[in-house]
Amino acid sequence: NANGGPSGTLPAMQIVSALFVENFELRQAPGPSTRIDITGAMFSMAAPSPAPLTISPHLVALVFCAPGESGNGVFEVIFRKGLQEDAEQMARNVSPFNVEPGKFTYRLVKGELEFDDYGQIFAHCRVDHGPWHLVPFPLLPPAWPRRRNPAASPRFCHGARSRGYSPLPCPTAS
Fold it and tell me: What DSSP element (H or E) covers 59?
């Protein structure tokens, strides 16, 4: 079949997991065994500046090759503005790879994504024209609005805003 195996069996290669991350590192462990240390798994991201903007998130995918298969594959990622296969395409990456049969490999894709506004996009991932694996990525407004002139903003005393009271200006030092 199109997934590399006989009809009714699992695909020759499968995406086990895919997510957006800030960083990851490979390290050896006793065995011999390999570990992947993943930091900053992102299920959303606050924009670093107001829209429109371009960001470059890292998508890492773990791919398993079934024993007895060739170990050659093609990893495809299409960043889209929706869930559907015909949703607007923002970027696309296709890369061939190989992996020892019966083992895992990883694929790292850095997208250059232009956002006109905040919202959710989806990384549509697959191996060898197999089923799509979707990874959502919501871009949120910046976490802290930046003031142009902090000195022009009034200061308030005693946490009045946090308690729901009308804010009272702080006395100024003479």
Answer: strand 58-65
Q: Which are the contacts of 49, defined by CB distance < 8 A and separation ≥ 6?
A: 142
Of 64, 75, 62, which is closest to residue 13 (Cα–Cα)? 64
Residue 65 burial (CB < 10 Å; 0-12/13-18/19+)? buried
Q: Is the pLDDT of residue 168 over 60?
A: no
Q: What is the pLDDT of residues 135-145, one digit of tens each?
A: 999 999 998 75
H/E stretch holding 113 reads: strand 113-115
SS3 percent helix, strand, coil of the chain, rounded to 5, is: 0, 50, 50
- pLDDT tens-digit readout, 10-35: 678 999 999 999 998 988 888 878 88
Q: Which one, of 67, 68, 47, 64, lies nearest residue 56 by Cα? A: 47
The pTM score is 0.75
What whole-number distance in Å separates Cα of residue 47 and Cα of residue 55? 8
pLDDT interval class at 65 (50, 70, 90): very high
